[in-house]
Protein backbone atom coordinates (compact mmCIF):
# COMPACT_ATOMS: atom_id res chain seq x y z
CA UNK A 1 0.00 0.00 0.00
CA UNK A 2 1.47 3.42 -0.94
CA UNK A 3 2.31 5.80 1.85
CA UNK A 4 -0.30 8.51 2.40
CA UNK A 5 1.26 11.94 2.78
CA UNK A 6 -0.48 14.79 4.62
CA UNK A 7 -2.53 17.21 2.52
CA UNK A 8 -3.38 20.78 3.51
CA UNK A 9 -5.72 23.52 2.38
CA UNK A 10 -3.99 26.90 2.20
CA UNK A 11 -6.06 29.48 4.12
CA UNK A 12 -3.88 32.52 3.32
CA UNK A 13 -1.62 33.09 0.32
CA UNK A 14 2.02 33.22 1.33
CA UNK A 15 5.58 32.53 0.24
CA UNK A 16 7.78 30.10 2.13
CA UNK A 17 11.44 29.10 1.98
CA UNK A 18 11.37 25.30 1.62
CA UNK A 19 15.17 24.81 1.81
CA UNK A 20 15.71 24.98 -1.93
CA UNK A 21 13.86 28.13 -3.01
CA UNK A 22 10.93 30.38 -2.22
CA UNK A 23 7.64 28.63 -2.87
CA UNK A 24 4.32 30.38 -3.42
CA UNK A 25 1.21 28.95 -1.72
CA UNK A 26 -2.13 30.23 -3.02
CA UNK A 27 -5.24 30.60 -0.83
CA UNK A 28 -7.85 27.94 -1.60
CA UNK A 29 -5.41 25.47 -3.19
CA UNK A 30 -4.51 22.10 -1.67
CA UNK A 31 -0.96 20.91 -1.23
CA UNK A 32 0.44 17.49 -0.34
CA UNK A 33 3.70 17.41 1.64
CA UNK A 34 5.76 14.47 0.36
CA UNK A 35 8.23 14.73 3.24
CA UNK A 36 11.23 15.92 1.21
CA UNK A 37 10.91 19.59 2.22
CA UNK A 38 10.37 21.52 5.43
CA UNK A 39 6.74 22.29 4.59
CA UNK A 40 5.74 20.83 7.98
CA UNK A 41 7.26 23.92 9.65
CA UNK A 42 4.62 26.05 7.94
CA UNK A 43 1.68 23.65 8.23
CA UNK A 44 2.10 23.34 12.00
CA UNK A 45 0.42 26.75 12.38
CA UNK A 46 -3.34 26.59 11.88
CA UNK A 47 -3.29 30.25 10.79
CA UNK A 48 -2.07 29.36 7.30
CA UNK A 49 -3.05 25.73 6.60
CA UNK A 50 -5.63 23.16 7.67
CA UNK A 51 -5.61 19.39 7.06
CA UNK A 52 -7.80 18.18 4.20
CA UNK A 53 -8.09 15.38 1.67
CA UNK A 54 -6.37 15.56 -1.73
CA UNK A 55 -8.44 16.39 -4.81
CA UNK A 56 -7.86 16.45 -8.57
CA UNK A 57 -6.00 19.78 -8.43
CA UNK A 58 -3.81 19.08 -5.37
CA UNK A 59 -0.18 20.12 -5.81
CA UNK A 60 2.55 17.84 -4.43
CA UNK A 61 5.32 19.82 -2.77
CA UNK A 62 8.63 18.06 -3.36
CA UNK A 63 12.30 18.94 -3.27
CA UNK A 64 13.62 19.12 -6.87
CA UNK A 65 16.53 16.79 -6.02
CA UNK A 66 14.34 14.16 -4.30
CA UNK A 67 13.79 12.04 -7.41
CA UNK A 68 17.54 11.86 -8.06
CA UNK A 69 18.21 10.52 -4.55
CA UNK A 70 15.85 7.52 -4.88
Distance between the termini: 18 Å
The run of helices and strands is EEEEHEEH
Beta-strand residue fraction: 25-35%
Strand order of the largest sheet: 5-1-4-6
Helix percent band: 10-25%
Report Rg: 12 Å
The number of helical runs is: 2
* Tally of DSSP β-strands: 6
Shape: globular
The whole-number mean of residue pLDDT values reads 88
SS class: mainly beta
Q: Summarize the main sheet.
A: 4 strands, mixed
Low-pLDDT stretches = none
What does this structure look like?
- By secondary structure, the protein is mostly beta strands.
- 13% of the residues lie in helices and 33% in strands.
- β2 and β3 (22-25) form a beta hairpin.
- It is globular.
- The model has no long low-confidence stretch (mean pLDDT 88).
Architecture blueprint of SSEs:
Blueprint (H helix, E strand, L loop, with lengths): L6 E4 L3 E4 L4 E4 L4 E4 L5 H5 L5 E4 L6 E3 L4 H4 L1
Parallel strand pairs: 4-6
Antiparallel strand pairs: 1-4, 1-5, 2-3
What descriptors fit this protein?
two-stranded antiparallel sheet
Amino acid sequence: MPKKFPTYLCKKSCSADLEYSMYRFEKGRTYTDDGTTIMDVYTSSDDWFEPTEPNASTITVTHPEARRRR
